[in-house]
Amino acid sequence: MPRLPAPVQARLEDAARAYFDAPGRGVDFSNPRGAPALFAPTSMAWRVMKNPAALTIGGIAAVILELAEPRVRTGVWEHTTFRTDPVARMKRTGMAAMVTVYAPADVARAMIAGVVGAHGRVEGATPAGVTYRANDEELLNWVNGTAGYGFFKAYSRFVRPLSGAEMDQLYAEGEEAAALYGAHGAPRSAADMRKMFAAMRPKLERSQIVFDFLEIARNAPILPSRSLQRMMVRAAVELTPPWVREILGLGAGFGLRPGGATALRALGAASDRIVLDGAPPAQACKRMGLAADYLYR
Fold first, then answer.
1. Helix crossing, 164-173 with 190-200: angle to 10°?
2. What is the pLDDT of residues 77-108, one digit of tens each?
3. Does residue 34 sit within a domain?
4. What is the pTM of this model?
5. Nearest in space to 250 (alpha carbons), one of 262, 260, 261, 239
6. How many folded domains does the chain comprise?
């Protein structure tokens, strides 16, 4: 596998450790030896979720879709630290995804149980007076489905095109984890995701909060390069279905500029080949007795 010059590799390793050192999430992905995860090392999920470019772009796209639903939007905006401490909130979300996919299964189950418990205390009403509970299964299905959609679409567009069968496999592999979160009706195929979009379409609506989130995502100190970060936000907007962008009022000016997609595809392809020894994917490979570069070949 290609290795970057030592100083660059070291900076990337430090950045990965800092990103995944989220508060309260001290997880050892490298131990205990041989402990299986919820997803197998041979799964599509292990290969797709290792790519930091796809995770960043896909994660932002997923949040855009989540915030399009007024009950989810109100819960996120009123009961999380997105507005006051967006970087810590994004780190915790990214770490939760890593734990779900790569951590020992008992660690993942314990983490998910904690999330479900915390969600059980979140309820309220939207500005329009519609009541919600964070653990409502319809909302959990939407959050789970849009997360998968964002990650998988980002990988397929900016790293390597995924076939229909590969996309379906990615959705199907997540069934156990989705059920642990309470999303028993989460999509199990790309066709299921299309059905979910059709069912949720009448419930989505425009909100200033979506624009506020995009402003936060553009300017919060998430990546060392602010210009790259803003390009990734534009890419995330473009990943959402055109009809969603129309509902939200995200016109062409919010999408990628000329040359942006080409640059991000180059970054995504490179990110899929560079091993970060301190990041959860490589650590999980070592736990399973595999070479650190197993997923990068």
1. 70
2. 998 877 778 777 778 888 999 999 999 999 99
3. no
4. 0.93
5. 239
6. 1
